[in-house]
Amino acid sequence: MQTSSLAAWKELALHCARSAGKLSLARMKEPFTVEYKTSASDLVTAVDKEVEKHVVDMILQRYPDHGILGEESTFTGDPGKFDTLWVIDPIDGTTNFVHQQINFSVSIAVYHKGEGLIGVVYDPSRDELFHAVKGQGAFLNDQPLRLNRQVHLEEALLCTSVFWNKRAEQMGIDQIVKKLAGKVRGMRLLGSAALELAYVAAGRLDGYVSLSLNAWDFGAGKIIVEEAGGRVTTMRGTPLPYDQKSSIMACNPAFYEELQHYLSLNENT
Ligand code: 2AM
Ligand code: CA
User: Fold this and answer.
1) Which of 88, 97, 114, 248 could hold 70 in an S-S bridge, CB 3.0 to 4.6 Å?
2) What is the DSSP letter of 236?
3) Is 32 in the pocket of ligand 1 (CB under 6 A)?
């Protein structure tokens, strides 16, 4: 991988994230349609689709030979066929976008031959831009992020995303949350996995766990947490995939093993 390509991809990823965030904020002030995907708790808006198309167009205009894996499936090619794959979620936290008008983000990652190289998460409502390039550290705006605080699990503020569906129940989500909540200082549910991962990198949260996320929810956040010095794996402790659904645990390295022990006690994860 040439350094010049990496720098150019990073600039484009940052530009796309800022531009997508600006478009979301503008559209938020106007009426927009909201549809149910699978249920009343699984929303998609016309803005999600428009913003994804905006990002996909910008990427393909510059790099027509790159592939894209996006939540709204604007790109119709087979993601498995491309060496360089952009993994994007135009609005991560759509329910927050609709209800709260804060706590949503744009998530953009670049993977090359399966290796995560660039991660960008942008929160347009607070104008906070988190980014990382593999081997070059993680940043919040221009501030470097480094997880060097020693945190014990008992002192940790943990975050999770809970989908209370049949599958999650079968996987024992209630048991996991109950067990963890009794062990840590506090639990949070913010509703945008990408932003929650960025907050782990920034030390605003000490860890994030979820039974099942899509690749575009964690693609960028994983790279940012790792570059800040955190650990990110599946709940079983195996490497995270970059192109399919997975469980995830991301945390301050000080209590990774202890947290992993807790999560692995639930054999279905
Ligand atoms: P979204 O807003 O892009 O759908 C909390 O709801 C977090 O989980 C958000 O990042 C949300 O992303 C994601 N999410 C919502 N429903 C999901 C599902 N069925 N599977 C995986 N992730 C989901
Ligand atoms: Ca989304």
Assistant:
1) 88
2) T
3) no
C-alpha 192/C-alpha 66 separation (Å) is 26
Q: Under 8 Å CB-to-CB from 42, ≥6 apart: which residues? A: 36
Ligand 2 midpoint to CA 184 (Å)? 29
Active site (annotated) includes residue 233: no
Contact 105, 123 (CB under 8 A): yes
In 71-220 the beta strands, taken as DSSP E runs, fall at 84-92, 105-112, 115-123, 128-133, 138-140, 143-145, 157-160, 186-188, 207-213
Residue bearing the CA closest to ligand 1, atom 14: 213
At 265, give phi and psi (nearest 5°).
Answer: -65, -20
Q: Against a cut of 0.90, is the pTM above it?
A: yes
Tell me, using a 6 A CB cutoff, whether residue 226 lines ligand 1.
Answer: no
Measured from the Cα of 41, ligand 1's closest atom is: 16
Encode the chain (269 residues) as per-residue pLDDT tens digits.
788 899 999 999 999 999 999 999 999 999 999 999 888 888 889 999 999 999 999 999 999 999 999 999 999 899 999 999 999 999 999 999 999 999 999 999 999 999 999 999 999 999 999 999 999 999 999 999 999 999 999 999 999 987 766 677 777 778 888 889 999 999 999 999 999 999 999 999 999 999 999 999 999 999 999 999 999 999 999 999 999 999 999 999 999 999 998 887 665 55
